[in-house]
Amino acid sequence: MSQKQIHSTIHVNALNSGYVNSHILFGVDFEAKEKEITVIVGPNGSGKSTLLKSIFGLCNVYSGEINYQGISIAGLSPHEVARKKIAYLPQVNNVFKNLTIKENLTMASYTLDAKQQSTRLPEIFEMFPILKKYEKSKADTLSGGERQMLAMAMALIRQPKVMLFDEPTASLSPKLADEVLSKIKQMRDDFGITIILVEQNVKRALKMGDYVYLLANGKGVFKGKSEELLSHPELGKLYLGIN
Ligand SMILES: Nc1ncnc2c1ncn2[C@@H]1O[C@H](COP(=O)(O)OP(=O)(O)OP(=O)(O)O)[C@@H](O)[C@H]1O
């Protein structure tokens, strides 16, 4: 019987980071294992986005380590991190609204050669049929959910190994949010992508995450399996509004 081997892909150790003149994360430890979905939850302003941005080279790292497959990526610029096949999907402004769907995907695949582009595009359209249907339409005509799908497709076309999602279901209806989250699961299951997900709907996030981190006031408060957080007598109530 084959045994699933799980390695740590992203490893953050004693991280202190933030923005110019504002120290946000204090001694945060974090780990995302290969081919798993690791969820980051916590109250508003607790530093969830800052952790993603720190990994992607968008914050100032004061001290601590950020490693990818055992190699330090702390202090690299976002484009250097992206070159290592780590993709970051911010909450907003993640597509070019005045370009068509196909043009957006072509822009996103600029690092691929023409042959790779011609094979990747049909694969992407197979996974996101809605994008094929509207390929000639401008992105600003898409609904919120469809736009999120386009942003995911733009990241996926470059064949990332790790994807960082910042609240991909923000302002979507429950039905669309479920569709977006099921695509994210498919990315793990079909492509073996390591996922780090910040999600505002805690119950939904915990249901799909393999592992969960709870941040509060810029510090790690809990790490463990989702079920453990859900059944914790105090933490859920204290920080996440779970009764
Ligand atoms: N560019 C920035 N410059 C200075 N401070 C910032 C910047 N971006 C965020 N912050 C501050 O960092 C703190 C943590 O914000 P962050 O967005 O990481 O939290 P979050 O847990 O993702 O919150 P939310 O759930 O509301 O999105 C907040 O106090 C916020 O005001």
UniProtKB/TrEMBL annotation:
<comment type="similarity">
    <text>Belongs to the ABC transporter superfamily.</text>
</comment>
<dbReference type="InterPro" id="IPR003593">
    <property type="entry name" value="AAA+_ATPase"/>
</dbReference>
<dbReference type="InterPro" id="IPR003439">
    <property type="entry name" value="ABC_transporter-like_ATP-bd"/>
</dbReference>
<keyword id="KW-0547">Nucleotide-binding</keyword>
<dbReference type="GO" id="GO:0015807">
    <property type="term" value="P:L-amino acid transport"/>
</dbReference>
<dbReference type="InterPro" id="IPR052156">
    <property type="entry name" value="BCAA_Transport_ATP-bd_LivF"/>
</dbReference>
<dbReference type="GO" id="GO:0005524">
    <property type="term" value="F:ATP binding"/>
</dbReference>
<keyword id="KW-0067">ATP-binding</keyword>
<dbReference type="Pfam" id="PF00005">
    <property type="entry name" value="ABC_tran"/>
</dbReference>
<keyword id="KW-0813">Transport</keyword>
<feature type="domain" description="ABC transporter">
    <location>
        <begin position="10"/>
        <end position="242"/>
    </location>
</feature>
<dbReference type="GO" id="GO:0015658">
    <property type="term" value="F:branched-chain amino acid transmembrane transporter activity"/>
</dbReference>
<keyword id="KW-0029">Amino-acid transport</keyword>
<dbReference type="InterPro" id="IPR027417">
    <property type="entry name" value="P-loop_NTPase"/>
</dbReference>
<dbReference type="GO" id="GO:0016887">
    <property type="term" value="F:ATP hydrolysis activity"/>
</dbReference>
<protein>
    <submittedName>
        <fullName>ABC transporter ATP-binding protein</fullName>
    </submittedName>
</protein>
<dbReference type="InterPro" id="IPR017871">
    <property type="entry name" value="ABC_transporter-like_CS"/>
</dbReference>
